[in-house]
Amino acid sequence: xxxxxxxxxxNTQRIAIFAGSSALIAFIVYQLFFSDKRSKLNVEAEKxxxxxxxxxSFDEFxxxxxxxxxxxxxxxxxxxxxxxxxxxVEGGSMVTQGQVLLxxxxxxxxxxxLQSETEASRLVNDLQNTRQQLKVARFNIRRTLNELEFKIxxxxxxxxxxxKLFKDKVxxxxxxxxxxxxxxxxxxxxxxxxxxxxxxEENAKMQIGQLEGTLLRTQxxxxxxxxxxxxxxxxxxxxxxxxxxxVEVGSNISQGQNIGQIDDLNGFKMRVAIDExxxxxxxxxxxxxxxxxxxxxxxxxxxxxxxxxxxxFEVDMSFPKGTPEGIKRGQSTPIRLExxxxxKAVLLPVGGFFxxxxxxWVYVLDNSGKRAIKRNITLGRKNPEYYEVLEGLQTxxxxxxxxxxxxxxxxxxxxx
Length: 416
Fold this sequence. Notes:
The chain is an alpha+beta fold. Helices cover about 35% and strands about 35% of the residues. The two termini are about 70 Å apart. The mean pLDDT is about 85. This is Efflux transporter periplasmic adaptor subunit.
């Protein structure tokens, strides 16, 4: 007789369904609560630049370009204008002090010089004539005074004799008074002639003094015109290299126009252009260095030109330990210009990431080296090699320092 078999609840099918449902629920829970929801991007590791964060000495410096120039550059400016009659020395030649470089011609200057000489000659003649007239006047006055003294002596004798005769009542009173008047008239006339002599003497001296002063000024004027004519011959004020002379025969030169320059080759300096961003941090005495012939050569700022052109200003730097042997005028070289003292800091190598993040965040590799995670950081100072890390990174960590331009806003990079 057949028996009814009781049907089992956990059959194979139900077990399979339950297991599948459990797995699905577990997957959903994991996705909802435990899975990494950050945005990811797969990138090729070979195309990335990965740098290590390190601790070391942070040297705050900038790299600028310096050009070797002579220690002294003497500008040749035309003292007087004119057209070039003869060009004697070409640019690039060595010259000695006083050597004639070129000759100018200016007819107006020559005419003014001749007129000045003529005026000086006229004044010399006038001065000689005035002195001669003074001598003649002195002789005439002396002769007149001599004659008056003779007449006074005669009149005095007559007056004194008539005075006695009148007292003795030998002659009438009219004769006595007439002799007295004649005598007194001659005495007064002598006083007038003496005063006239003094006046004429003083007047003649004044005229001579005026003529002498005018003549002196005129002679100085003549000397000035002569020196001006001498300046038509342009000479080298110092010895050195005539690096340029920008004139040709027949060309017209204005007064004050620059016509060339002479380089003093007894020493050199560096002329350096610096970005205006650093103008407040540059001062006389600031140091720098450059490499030449396999040696590190120190430099010191000696002069600052504050005028800014095209966003840059210039400084002069000297060689405190002497000019390196073999250096040439016009040679350019990179210079390491120190802006501050070296300090210990956490360092991150410079890279293209900064232009994409502004230094506010970077991708940091995890321990596996297969994943890079976005992390906020804070950077401080910068030099051409490193950024100073203030917050967010530790020594030994690996950071992607190449450009982030193709990563968008992804938070995790998967390195393949």
